[in-house]
Amino acid sequence: MSQKLENLLNLALETPEAVRLQTDNLNVGFDSGSRSWELIVKYHGSLDGLEALGVSVEYLINSYAILTVPEQLVEAVSNIEEIEYVEKPKRYYYQDIGPAADSCMTQVMLRDPFLAGTGVLVAVLDSGIDFTRPEFRDGAGRTRILYLWDQTLRPEAGNGERQPPQGFAQGVEFSAQQIDRALAESDPQQRYMLLPSVDTSGHGTAVAGIAAGCLPAYEGSVAGIPGSQYRGAAPAASLLVVKLGLPGAEGFPRTTEIMRGVTYALQKAMELAMPLVINISFGNTYGAHDGGSLLERFLDNA
Which tens digits make up the pLDDT trace of 66-85? Predict the structure, then answer.
């Protein structure tokens, strides 16, 4: 048992796979096909030498990384000097957001300083988005979604428009231009062929609407903000959407997908030179609840 491994990971490694499969969380992060674990690590220095051992290294921000480690090498990898601490992924589950009145938003939206999120990038890391809805378009009908990264889609070799974001190996990234091309199609099947990202649960669409939706009204406006039948917290903001998950996987996303999504959002905000707000309406009951897990420290550093 390594002291660099979190207790839950130590327990998972000591538990037979058949027993882990009967639990809610112990087998999360294990791939039975490749017999490998996806792990979150805090490190210093460089981890490039691990690739010679057959370990895949995905660097994140602030000395965090995601490793894919053959099962028999987990303890050995954790013992190298550069590795400070290791955790396994956990499942995250949907949580709802309270109404606008509870947050006192209306006091700053409907009177001076009339804040509406203009020039702000709102990243929604969730179950995806129904990009066709008018709440996510501007007055000319163009999308307000600058980028949509669907982590659950498989990249297509040789197709430059079906690739993951730069620096990532998972999913497919769509630009605003690609979304607008899909919106221009009246045939739903053709639209889906151009952009096959679907919010099957509707949770991400609802969260994005609460955060930044705006359905234009037939008349009226407030301080230059288009009037609306429905208005979210930041109706003039631009959207960045990450559909969390793995290709072909069932159930809820893992903490590693969230960490990838946060890294992606931060990189895009810096690239676009825009202030960023990230919404993650997920939660679980695992961990010590003291802010000391790698995910919590990663989010603090972000």
Answer: 999 999 999 999 999 999 99
